Amino acid sequence: MSAEPFLPTPSTAPRFGVWLIGARGSVATTAIAGCAAVAAGLHPATGMVTETAPFTSCGLPSLSSLVFGGHDTLDCPLPKRAEHLAAGGVLPHGLPSAVHAELVAADREIRPGGPLPGAPAPTQEALIDAFASDIRDFVRRQDLAGAVVVNVASTEPAPTDDSLPPSSLYAAAALRAGCPYVNFTPSTGLHHPALAALAESSGLPYAGRDGKTGQTLLRSVLGPMFLQRALAVRAWSGTNLLGGGDGAALADPAAAAAKNAGKERVLVDTLGAAPEGEVHIDDVPALGDWKTAWDHIAFDGFLGARMVLQTTWQGCDSALAAPLVLDLARLAVRAHEKGLSGPLGELGFYFKDPVGSGPSSLAEQYAELRGFAGRLRDDGGVGDDASGAAERGTGR
User: What are the start and end residues of every segment in region (Disordered) (predicted)?
Assistant: First the structure.
């Protein structure tokens, strides 16, 4: 299988699709509304790394060129979902009405997902074909130069047999439709062994997995700090309180275990071994899209002095994730346009459990990301960021 190249629409600036799995969820709704708001100049691009100076000459698609669609099993229209988020303080007051037309347009492009519990089960091949057809029809109908598929659906448990879980069905459909794929969740997606050959032969770029937005973001900074200062970490424990769809999904112990695997990997990779302690995730529906994450770090200092660092992270998951989703969609589109394929390890900056090889320290990941920005330039990577990354040994 070979990837189809992006073909710009004649006489007009090219537009690119962002096909979201979980398109009516909080993260997707925030990303769609936020993209429209920033493109219209209603709000600054706070939290979008691709809108900072190192990325201005990378040829990334503009926010105004992005067209949204997706799959979901929910039927709550995007405008209504946005109103709920505004009532909960996730979106600014008045924003749903200001970008109502964009939300309606995106909602028209959302197709039913699956498989649905209790419904007659089509074969996996039939589902993949149907999902891929939806994506191809979206590209043709909107006259797009291409599309990227981004999974922002709720976390699913790790598979216990050889069958493909829903996230892997969508991932296979993305590749079959000739689209780059980004897994922003800890769900299996392209990590399923049955998809390894398809991913390798597709000629498409892909990235993931599990967006790094809060507690693990801090861990990827603090872990290297302890290691570099020769401070011995004895135990590292954490607690997450959250509500909304993620809280409900993570109330399932199997889904929580899939989520925690990425959090633990960061500590192993940065400290060299897993310290004592674990992360507990508690569903608190009253919190909605807001979450609180505590970390308790016990460490030894000089002459065995026992000390503790405690951190508290309070934030809104959707507002933290949405700008990263937009970043990743733009970067994946540009990578495909430049003919890159395979795992985009340089995007590890965004993930708890990145594909490919690369460092786990946030600072080193950022250096790789800037080197990647150089590769995306039309000049072939000639510039300060690319050469700087090469000098640091982080460019690829």
Answer: 375-396
